[in-house]
């Protein structure tokens, strides 16, 4: 997710709202709850709408795993 779409994905219209340079600093999953720590680039630039889209992408991505409930 942080690397952006592959060339094949981009060719069919897949995109990412995650700003370039965003890094995963930490990820913990405890009792079904995931906590994701991303670098400051994640919150930089864009409107509040784009920040909500970024957050939704992270939530959608992390909750696809069966050990994550929240």
Helix content: 25-40%
Q: What's the average pLDDT?
A: 93
Radius of gyration: 13 Å
Total number of strands = 2
Number of helices: 2
Order of helices and strands: HEEH
Structural category is alpha+beta
Poorly predicted ranges = none
Q: Main β-sheet: number of strands, strand sense, barrel status? A: 2 strands, antiparallel
The general outline is globular
Distance between the termini: 19 Å
Question: Reading side by side through the largest sheet, how are the strands ordered?
Answer: 1-2
* Strand-residue proportion: 15-25%
Write the layout of secondary structure elements.
Elements: H1 7-11, E1 24-30, E2 33-38, H2 48-62
Antiparallel strand pairs: 1-2
How would you describe what is shown here?
With 70 residues, the chain is of the alpha+beta class. The protein has 2 helices and 2 strands, in the order H-E-E-H. The chain has a two-stranded antiparallel ribbon.
């Amino acid at each position: 997710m942080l690397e952006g779409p592959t060339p094949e994905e981009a060719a069919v219209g897949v995109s990412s709202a995650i700003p370039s340079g965003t890094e995963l600093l930490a990820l913990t999953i405890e009792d079904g709850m995931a906590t994701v720590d991303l670098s400051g680039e994640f919150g930089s630039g864009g409107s509040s709408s784009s920040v909500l889209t970024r957050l939704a992408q992270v939530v959608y991505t992390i909750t696809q795993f069966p050990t994550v409930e929240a």
